[in-house]
Amino acid sequence: MTSSSHRRRNGRPAACDPCRSRKVACDHTRPVCLRCQRREQSARCVYSQSNPRPLGVPSRNPSQPDTPSSALSSISQYQQRSIDNPTRISTGYLGEISYNSVLNETIGTLSLANGSTPTYGRLDHSTRQFVSFERLLAPLREMAIYVLQTLPGQANEQMVFNDSSFASTGFMHIAVDRIIASINSLFENFAAEDEAVALKSIAELLCHNTAQPWRDVTSSSSDFLDQFCGTSLRWEALGILWLHMNRVSDPVDSPLTRRVAWKDGKESHETCRTCVDYCIDISRHLCDGNDVLVDICRRQSALHTVVDGDGTYSCSLLHGLNVAMATYLGLHAQQGSADYKASLSSEYKRRLFAQTFISDKLFVCFTGRPPLISRRFCRTPLLLDLSDEELAADPIAFEQAVRALDANGWNTKGRLYSSTLIRARYIAALIRDELIEVALGDPNHVTIDQLLSLQEKHSALDNQLPAWFKYSPKDLEEPDAMNDQRFGKILLRLEHVQSLFLVQRLLLRHGYPDSGDLLITSFDMLAMTLCLNQRDRAAAQRQRHAGWLFISYAVPAAGILCVELLRPTFKRSHPKDARLTRSSIIQKLSLVVAFLDWMRPSAPNGTLCADSKLIIQRVLDEHLNAPDERVGGEMLESVDWGFPMQLDFNFDLLDTFDWLRPGGDEI
């Protein structure tokens, strides 16, 4: 007999979920109705509608504080409605040629005919059923407990929270502050409980929150952050915490002081990578992806380059996941409009896509592998040049900051923000994407006019930048005055010069006369790379990427200069640039050897650095020690290298040491 507790509010017995979804009669037998028994789906026979409270986060009194501990107080009410795997409720972004496009056109026709728009497809539930921690797969449970045990005060403590206040009020720093407060509140709530019980209960709450759908919140920055902080603390938040502590961010934000730091003697890139990998795996199991998870995957890919190197399989996998999740969520198709109203959520999406696109082009230029995303299929406009503090401001201050931008979306204060550098690099990456298509495409379809047009586009990049952010040769002067703005200008210029380097290499390969421009470009590229390293040697968060900088920029440029020493094309100084002399080339190459010698062979990209050092050092030895009569075109053929030549950059336009291999005479 059905008890009153199993009846709906109208007094009628409640049907089980499968029968109600199929709209068939249910005999209300507990615990499993006869229809579900016959269909052999006993595990799915759940009477959720008979529960007096809706599924989701436990309800609370309006006067009750909005803290994780208040949500945990009713956690036991949801055990009976737990499920093994949350049901997916989203299909992600669907483009114009998807199966759904025809259905949408049909719906539009019906709307015009009937005067209303019918609703089709799955219900968009506001919440999902509660996720039982015990029913998760064993590896996921072990991952969750391991990550929680690394938090402050736990058995495997790896980090500490700094109580000092800091000046930065950027939205990500505010998010970290709130995440820290949420974690502290959770552990205080279970201070008197057994450690194992406490960790499982906290993990269960995080799993439940992570399974909730992600919403596009455009009302305020505070509402946006509420989705993964406070009572809505998710596993993605712990991933943010780890990457924030390890300073995996953009070049402008990474030097800022952090509220979270490594415990003394515990600093380890490997530990950080492991914990973030676990947070990603748990989140991907529980949800379909969201903006924050895209950001975590992007930063985790950068961390893998620090640990393993830029051309490794693990880095490629994470980069692929980043691009796949970004396109799945439609970040590439955030179309702009004349009445666009900016918000933290919308600008965050634009920023994430721009960073993903930039990373893809840098990845291609390092490995020579095809790009994973093309500008031809992207409609997301440029992000606005707003500071992180302005993004986190109240709605009124935010609107004022947007109105203060110039007509092109740049800030009028002449200050370098994270968005400034991302915006400028994105513009350059769009042009570089055209170059990549030519470089990796069929060489039979490439024309000189096409390459010259690309060269003009890259040379005109400065016209799209504000006057205060344009590069000047003076930025390479004053060794001890490297600030964020100068660093940003040199880095952007370095990427710009590399694109010119690639175009000029292509021109020479297609028979364009050599006027010496490639040699000058190589000298500039090498000088800028050395400047970034020498001026910023003390900044560890930038220094750890120095190996990538040298392999991407300095070493290819050094290859061209090495050929010039072995096969001279001018005497005394270059006719087009008085800076370029035999002496200046030797000085620059000597600095490159000194730096590459400083790099450990076990470091990321260490093998490439070691091979490069041996070759450049041998060229210098031959040039400086050879008799005068041998200094000339015959020197290259007479050099006894004495070791196997295995250096290979894969992307042949950057492999300027190809003259070392049999039959390799190109530069």
From TrEMBL:
UniProt keyword list: Metal-binding, Nucleus
SUPFAM superfamilies the record matches: Zn2/Cys6 DNA-binding domain
One Pfam family it belongs to: Fungal_trans
Region spans: Disordered: 47-80
UniProt keyword annotation of Repeat present: no
Any one Gene Ontology molecular-function term assigned to this protein's record: DNA binding
A single cellular component GO annotation: nucleus
Subcellular location: Nucleus
InterPro entries named in the record: Sec_Metabolite_Reg (IPR050613), XnlR_reg_dom (IPR007219), Zn2-C6_fun-type_DNA-bd_sf (IPR036864), Zn2Cys6_DnaBD (IPR001138)
The keyword Nucleus is annotated on this UniProt entry: yes
Protein name, entry field: Zn(2)-C6 fungal-type domain-containing protein
Organism ancestry: Eukaryota, Fungi, Dikarya, Ascomycota, Pezizomycotina
